[in-house]
Specification:
It holds the Pfam family SURF1. By secondary structure, this protein is an alpha+beta fold. The chain has four helices and eight strands; from the N terminus they run ααβββββββαβα. The protein has two domains: 71 residues; 120 residues, no CATH class. Strand 3 and strand 4 form a beta hairpin.
Amino acid sequence: MMLDIQNKRQQSSRWRLLSFMVFTVIVIAGLVKLGLWQSERGAHKEALERQLLTHQHQSPLSLTDIKKMPYDKITGLPMSELVNLHPRVRLLLDNQRFNGVIGYQLLVPATVASESFLINIGWLPADLSRDVLPEIPPLPKRINVTGWVKPASQLVVLDQAYLMEQFGSVYRIQTEDLAAISDQLDIELLPWVLLLDEQQDWGLPRQWNWVTMSAEKHYGYAIQWFAMALALTVALVVVVMRSRRREP
């Protein structure tokens, strides 16, 4: 009788140990995966930072030159071109901060020959009421622009009803979804946005942040995830060894 009870206790203890081991191994695998992902992000940001540094010292290119470049190499390329701005359509990119204040970034379609793309003109403050749009300053119809090429961001918008809200010829958008914008405006847009040079005076403030998180921070997070995985691995080994010592 006592032997049966002891056997049942041992089996229950082994099942608890096995469950703990399986759960811990799954957590360790998840931590390692997060560490590898942060390492990849760090390497990507490091390459991007080198690319941006190289492009800063490059002479401005024309639209024809930009189109010849591989898409993964266009970030931060300087561009100078004589463009025709759309006379009516204005896009307000929502939830954009400038010096800690929420507002919009003003985007306007521009055309060179038969090619069209968006130009980010700068920042506008938002009204306290969502029903009141900011006053958009008058813009020239034809002007030489200088700026920096940036691939369009593709943030996920859960409610598609707010993806593009139309107010006459003004659209409030939640993300630079160029496919949706092209369909709505019936204008075929190139897959990037030109950030107007901060030194060009168009009456709107602008400050472009190319990298939201540096490569060093990504590597730091990767080290943290790997350290946690190592600590759990050591703890698992200690628990298993102690359990085996207690077994008769």
